[in-house]
Amino acid sequence: MVARFYKEEHRIFRKEMKDFVNKEIRPNAEKWEEEKGIPRELWYRMGELGFLCPWVDEKYGGFGAGFEYSVIIHEELARAEVSGAGMPAAHSDVVVPYIQHHGTEEQKQKYLPGCVSGEIITSIAMSEPEAGSDLASIRTTAVKDGDDYIVNGQKIFITNGTNCDLAVTAVKTDPKADPPYSGISILLIEAGTPGFAKGPALEKVGAHSQDTGQLYFDDCRVPAKNLLGNEGDGFQCMMYNLQQERLIITVGIQAAAEYILEKTIEYCKSRQVFGRPVTKFQHNTFKIVELATEVELGRTFLDSLTEEFLEGKDINLRVSMAKWWIGEMVNRLAYHCTQLHGGYGFMKEYFVARSFVDVRPGTIAGGTTEVMKLIVGKMMGL
To answer: Partner of 307 at 20 to 30 A CA spacing, among 59, 146, 321, 348?
Structure first.
C-alpha cells in the first residue's frame, strides 16, 4: 500500500533515486565495505543530482522540496547494500537542519550551499566518552574569550566524524548552570581550525563503510559568530531536532527490514533443501509469515507517523515508540533471516549476513531503546 501523502511527482522522484542506487551505488557495495568508506565523489554526485538537502530553500541552492523527498532518499539508500550510503542522508536530514532552523542569515549563506552541493560534509558532535544519550552530562567546554570561544573536550561515535568539514558541536558554555542542560550551547566548528583534531575511524563490528570517528578539541579557538542560536539554547535546539532525527532513523531501519525480508524470500524460494525449496517447509513458511506481519505493522505505523509529521503535529511520543519497536523488530528479523540462509547466512558476500550486524545501530543511535522507553513512560505520566 502506497502512503496517502505520495503523489505522481514523488513516484517519478523515487524511480530516479532507485535508478541512481542501482547504477552507481549497489555495484560498489562490497568494494566500499572492504575499503571502509564511501568516496567523496559520491557526495558530489548526489549533490549534482539534487539528492542532498533537497528541502533547502532555492536561494541557498536547494529545491525547497517537502520532507517526503527526504523519506524517499532514505528508503532507497537503505536498499543500496552498503552501510555508508546512509551517511549523506544523515548529513541532509539530521545535521544540516540545525543550521536551517537555528542559524543566522550569515551562517545559512556561508554553509548551506556547500551542504547542498556536497562540498561541505557535516557531522553532529554530541556524544562523549562519558555522555551518550544523557546529553545534559557533556563535559566539552567553551569559554568566552573576546570575540572567540576556547573549546576543550572530546567527542566520540560521531557520524561523518573523520570526513566532516563542519561539526555542529554541543558544548558547555556554563558548566555551573542549574539545571545542567541550561548551560549547553552549540558551535559550528570548521575542520582545519587550530586545536580541532580528528582521530582515526573507529573499528566497529559492522557498518564498516560508515564513517564513525572521534573529535578532539584542545584550546580550539572558534569565532563567537559561529554560535548557533543563543548561549544556553543548545539543549532546546537538540530536542527540537531530535524529533526529525528519530523519525529519519526509523525510516531507514524500516526500509532495511523490508529489503532484508525481500532478499530472504527470494533466496528461500530458490534454495533447495531435501529436494524442495526452503519456503515449502511449514516451519519456515510460518516464520516468514510472522516476519512479514511485523514488517507490515512497522510500515503502517511509520506511514501514519510520517503523515502526522508532515501535518506539523507533535510526534515525540509516537516517534519514540516507533524507533524502539521498529529498531528491535529489524534486529529480530535479521537474526531469523540469517538463519533461513543456513551456512550462506554466515558469508559476508551475502547482504543478509552483513545486515545482521549493520542494523544493530538502529537500537542505539539517536537514543537507545531503553531511553526511548523512558521518554515514552515519562510522557505517559508513569
So the answer is: 59
